[in-house]
């Protein structure tokens, strides 16, 4: 028996594919809009309008107000208080402790190390002599 119903999962794919087919015409129309030259229109000349002049108003003069005088307040006098005297406390005497005597420890003797083996002296490496008649900028190899 055959399945004759249209599968609904294909419907979103068809909508997306149809919308992608139409997008090319939008790009072409946008490019055509960008390439169309616009006609240059002459700028209209506006008549000059005079600036309105406002009449100058007189500045109002305010009367000077008298400054109020504050009454002088008497300074309060505080009585001098006597400084308290602290009695001298006797210093406590600490008993003298004898200095501890440390016993003298003998110095440990270090074992003698064996002498290093004698390495033979090697000659210094030298570079081979380079012929003076050869120009290094010219190459003979392809």
TrEMBL record:
Keyword Transmembrane helix: no
Bias (Basic and acidic residues) ranges: 42-51, 61-75, 85-110
Composition bias, Pro residues: 111-128
Record's protein name: Uncharacterized protein
Signal peptide (residue range): 1-30
Biological source species: Salix viminalis
Region (Disordered) location: 40-142
Keywords on record: Signal
Record has Signal as a keyword: yes
């Amino acid at each position: 028996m055959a399945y004759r119903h249209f599968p609904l999962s294909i419907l979103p794919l068809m909508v997306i594919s149809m919308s992608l087919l139409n997008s090319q015409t939008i790009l072409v129309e946008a490019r055509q809009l960008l390439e169309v030259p616009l006609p240059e229109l002459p700028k209209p000349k506006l008549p000059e309008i005079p600036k309105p002049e406002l009449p100058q108003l007189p500045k109002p003069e305010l009367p000077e107000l008298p400054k109020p005088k504050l009454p002088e307040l008497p300074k309060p006098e505080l009585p001098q208080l006597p400084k308290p005297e602290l009695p001298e406390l006797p210093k406590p005497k600490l008993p003298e402790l004898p200095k501890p005597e440390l016993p003298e420890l003998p110095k440990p003797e270090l074992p003698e190390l064996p002498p290093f083996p004698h390495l033979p002296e090697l000659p210094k490496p030298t570079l081979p002599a380079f012929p003076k008649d050869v120009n290094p900028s010219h190459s003979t190899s392809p």
